Amino acid sequence: MTERQPYRVVARHPGFELRRYSPHLVAEMQVQASFTRAPIEAFRPLAAYLAGANRARVTTSGMPGGTGMEKIAMTAPVVQVEGERPGAYLIQFVMPASFTAATLPEPTDPRVRIREIQGQLSAAMRFSGRWTEKAFDEKATMLGRSVTAAGLQPTGAIRYARFDPPWKPWFLRRNEVVLPVVE
Description:
This protein is an alpha+beta fold. It has one domain (3-180): Alpha-Beta Barrel (Multidrug-efflux Transporter 1 Regulator Bmrr, Chain A). The chain contains 2 helices and 13 strands; from the N terminus they run E-E-E-E-H-E-E-E-E-E-E-E-H-E-E. It has helices at residues 37-51, 133-149, and strands at residues 3-4, 7-13, 16-21, 24-32, 54-55, 75-76, 78-82, 88-94, 106-107, 113-117, 120-127, 159-162, 175-180. Strands 2-3-11-13-12-7-8-4-10 form a 9-stranded antiparallel beta sheet. It has a two-stranded parallel ribbon with strand order 1-6. The longest helix has 17 residues, at 133-149. The protein is globular, with a radius of gyration of 17 Å. The relative contact order is 0.22.
């Protein structure tokens, strides 16, 4: 069973759940590509990191913290968010909750970076279906309107979350759009 990113449901509103996410680590890669191509291009380097293209962190004594090449379990979701440059996307693999910034191995691929995401309050809308830009954009628009109608204020970029492998039938896939909101 694939570990899923934990959260706590704070409230339910028409069209979305209000969730509290704890701080967590991601392995991410920025890709200059279309919405559809970005996760495909980022998958191989990120999956290689999980499969052992990594090295142990250096301890405070300056010695390596372990042998390196540690296999890391795949978790869900895979997250996509608009990148820092126009036409770019960040593709993020959420790391297992058992790791800390001090224990998570460092990537050997310089395109892959590890980052801690702060805990946050977010609105989330779950849906099934294909991984198309149109589908995600429609749900993102619906979520934004629902959040505003509930009297909440968005405070960050929308995240597109995919929970299932590509071979799962499209009508069974779990997808979400997630929007951080002001506390």
